[in-house]
Design goal:
Chain A is an alpha/beta fold. Chain A contains ten helices and 13 strands. The first copy, chain A, has a seven-stranded mixed β-sheet, with helices on both faces. Chain A has a four-stranded parallel β-sheet with strand order 9-10-8-11, sandwiched between helices.
Chain lengths: 360, 360, 360, 360
């Protein structure tokens, strides 16, 4: 093996640079493998200036930095590229071209760091014959092939800090504070940050909620003389009986959706309980900044493990965390079904036991 | 002097508890003065259960905590209390009642910790004969009688951290990130956090902005190969030629105003420059949480100085910071005119010199 | 089950209060069980004023706080209590008295939160017939019955932050900076913080080191123009061929040992390489402060799980983390052998692959 | 004015990079002046490879970073350079050579960022005719010509965080925790961090202390049922009647002095009061890491102001903070006498009023 490529796709996640650094240092130091950096996700494989030599000096000092020195693009599915021909939008399959480009670049392996969407594309490319190794990346922790992924701990940290900050204001001003957090389909961030921050109500997409149930909790607290409450709501949470609605593409909360679920909950609870309620949408603050040590440690191990897999020609595999140890799993298996908060698992049991209202 | 009262009014600000603690410890330890805590701002002086003995053990451990153990209310002007009589709203002057209550409680002095609004009420009460000592509190730093007040440094810290976090995502995703910050009339938070975080554009209420000017800056950066930009916008910033609009009462940004200036700027810049632009509204996160050491230090000195002033019967004075030292100033003078960012001061000169676009 | 007791033993660890809070809230809310708080570890079971009713209002607001509201004592093994009789120190077995006291207090279960030492005592008490449930607590992560325990993530976070801080000074001043971290027998903190902070050399007790090997690494870096280096050293690290020496009882680093291994390494490397080298001993800063969200989340789940186990009369069990999920294991099995960094595991493989010198 | 040089001297301080960045951006953007970077303090002016072109792209991204991209050296007084000639150490005056080098490099101004020592050298160079502009930098805040300097706020923040962390452990374990902080001659860090962290005893060089006085405070607290105490001690604090002793050159605490004042206080108090006492030496952690927003803001304004002064040929001046505004003062005046904590100022008055023991 002489050369491997690496690209990062999808939304931002703290730890991407730690993966890149570990890949480059491990490839160069242990195996004498050169690394090609690919810019802006799969886009870098279909445009002329999309690659560059990723030498060890280019990754110096990036370990504690958020973002990705490779750039990332939310678009760029090579199986469905939008082009405009004669003023008409056409969807073109450029996967053959990508495959050929991988060969022309002399890449003996391609490490793809990305979330569910990016990894599904990677699986298709692998099935076409590309030498893919996957590295899972998701703020939401919604990939089932691994216990956890990097970026999630940093997101939950920021969310917990936000709850800590809202707490004192809520208490001093006798208010209900709603914090809208990421999580369109999976409520892990809201659940863990909510429990860690001491929220009174936690709303997640897995459990459609009812306003009367929330209102009852607020009133119970008021009767105990607790004149404030904290509600942590995943952006994908929705009232039972209604349809979950959010915009296509990037998650709703990131788009600073006007009238998101947080604002709706604040308004409705204010109306039902006759209290002041305010909403804060945490948005992008969950995605950026220096990764926590947990995420740096995990991302670094993922990068190193990905190079080892590549060197063993174990293509079509994804690195993962199992029993606290970094291992690997087939991409197909890892993506077979998405990960969701288990309704009868110990996390939910714990939250209910603490007296937290889950909206049902 | 046997007894002093203390109340906190207006919006939340980190450092309120540090003031309260310093007042109680100094009063008890140095002068043997008892302290009466008044609940929820001036409201505590017009309702039956509004006061309690504030003994030293009640202030233990509160120094690093945000919020106020006294509670605060945004309403509660005793000169204009809204009451409903026969289904009709009436504005009643309860200031005589408040003054009598202060006497009945045996308060030889009343320390009022609050912002512009609360301090103006305090000045009126002082002019009626109440033994008032003022302590300035404003997140926005808009009180001219003092170089700075507590709460501001914590707010700027959070705002700067937010810019740091947005930076890496902006860079990785080639985006314009707009951060909407507090500051309805004064742009200090946006200016200082913007400079400290390395923002490319800073919009403040003191300088009405033009979209073409911002767009020019974004494009200049793109031409230099800098495919991302950070815009720090005070909530009260507005386009030249338009009217500054925000809702009454609490500041717009805190109400998570749908379609605030941040969202408007993001949308317009996206349209003008053909780039992806996103907005984050920091809101309440600027008001809560543990105060920085700067704010703890200043708030503690303010509390101690207020007791010294009270003991000297120097009523109608406000503690303040002058030349880095805690002194005092008459409330009337301190409130004579509001503080704004000086358009020709060294702060603005510095920002322009760094190449930051101020929108004009 | 009517009543359970809880005590915390051994050194401080962020997350203890989160366990206590979860125990009290879960016991009261789900099962209607009363909780008795026991002061200062097992000491509270042998002295008159050692217990108090732990009602839900006593655990309000303690979730984000370090330390333990129950107090902890490093001494207090009821099987070997030191007493002075006629000026002579005698070791007395008070375990019968403790067992009787547990019965007299009406405790149907006793939840013990502690490290290796405290849990071994608990196992003995269980074997005598006491209804013990164990909750593992160790900063060092050296308990083998669980993937990880609370407190560790906070300690590694502080250690990683310290490396980040030392980095810039090392670089600006062309120095070798040595950071001495906790870990007498297990090097997990040094290994994870070292990798997460980008250390160049990591010394752990599991791998006796050689000075020439470290010096070689420093010189290699100098030849590449890297005029600074960071060394993360566990307090229990020692040179190959020598005996590992540290003082009895509390860990050496905590005692701010004069001439600890950090200082020794700094001096020796300075001599061997002709560079300036400085040492920082992190000590107690690793044990205190607000727990990270990871530790709050884990500690809360442990507390809740411990109450469930107690309610099921599953005594002699310890809660633990397995595959990312909270489960339980017998105390005897959990303590059978201590946990150490695996010399051929993927963590060490990763560190070596990154080019980090492990001293061998 | 065509070209200015910049160097950073003395110990590390967060904010140096912010000054450098502001100098380069302001010089290039406003005045079209080129900047020459000088490596490792004055050393860069006496060695061949000591300078390089400091273009705007070289200062990108350095604002939030600690350290200095120019490097710094603690030695390097051009008026007294140590050289070894024929095995004998000789002190050589190289100031003429430095002055000539400044001319040869075509530097129309030289901005020197440094502490007391570096600025005194600069004053001498100015008096010889060199076009010097000074920027004060001191962690200890001991330069009297300015209200405050950058680096200090970051140091106090870290020190306050450390006290917060020690607090919970002290309380849980019923201990006296001693934190040794920087401050050889001036006690500002210990005083402000001590007050901000809620220390019970604060020891500073300006007030020689007595052990019985400290012991009395510890015992008073014990009698009130407060079984723990926090002591913040500046490294230069010393017992009344003894000589203040510390090693030459870099401050004692930084050298991780074995047996520093912190350890001595812990030992003596343990002996006098019969309590467990532990010491933590914060050392270098106060000097490194990302600057606080306060320090970024001040350092940026200093850098911009220094370029303005240079452009006006106002040599021999030092930028400073006066009344919260950046101004300037003559170097000679600024250095006339060192700054110390005022024994009768409001800071000390406040600390005493809070019941803090200052050791006297």
């Amino acid at each position: 093996m002489d050369r491997i490529g690496i690209l990062t796709g999808g939304g931002d996640a703290p730890g991407l640079n730690a993966v890149i650094r570990a890949v480059v240092k491990t490839a160069a130091g242990v195996y004498g493998i050169d690394v090609t950096g690919i810019r802006d996700g799969f886009e870098g494989l279909v445009r002329p200036d999309g690659v560059f030599q990723l030498t060890p000096d280019k990754v110096r000092g990036i370990l504690p930095r958020g973002g990705t020195i490779l750039g990332a693009a939310n678009r760029g599915n090579p199986f469905a590229i939008r082009t405009v021909v004669d003023s008409e939008v056409q969807i073109v399959d450029a996967s053959d071209q990508v495959q050929k480009h991988i060969e022309d670049l002399g890449l003996d392996a391609l490490i793809v760091v990305g979330g569910d969407g990016t990894l599904r594309i990677s699986l298709e490319l692998f099935e076409k014959g590309c030498p893919i190794i996957g590295v899972p990346k998701t703020i939401d922790n919604d990939i089932s092939g691994t216990e956890i992924t990097f970026g999630f701990d940093t997101a939950v940290s920021m969310a917990t800090e936000a709850i800590d900050r809202l707490h004192t204001t809520a208490e001093a001003h006798h208010r209900v504070m709603v914090l809208e957090l990421m999580g369109r389909d999976a409520g892990f961030i809201a659940l863990q940050a909510g429990v860690s921050g001491g929220a009174d109500v936690i709303l997640i997409p897995e459990i459609p909620f009812s306003y009367p149930s929330i209102a009852r909790k607020i009133r119970e607290r008021a009767e105990e003389g607790r004149t404030f409450s904290i509600i942590a709501a995943a952006e994908g949470a929705y009232p039972a009986g209604e349809q979950q609605v959010y915009q296509d593409g990037e998650s709703a909360s990131q788009q600073s959706r006007l009238g998101g679920i947080g604002a709706e909950v604040a308004e409705e609870i204010s109306r039902l309980c006759g209290v002041e309620a305010r909403v804060t949408v945490l948005g992008y603050l969950q995605r950026g900044g220096s990764p926590t040590c947990f995420d740096r440690w995990l991302a670094t191990r993922y990068g190193a493990a990905a190079v080892r897999l590549a060197n063993q020609h174990r293509f079509g595999r994804m690195v993962c965390l199992q029993g606290g140890v970094v291992g690997d799993i087939s991409l197909a298996e890892a993506l077979a079904e998405p990960k969701r908060v288990g309704l009868h698992g110990e996390s939910i049991l714990t939250a209910r036991g603490l007296g937290i209202c889950l909206g049902d």
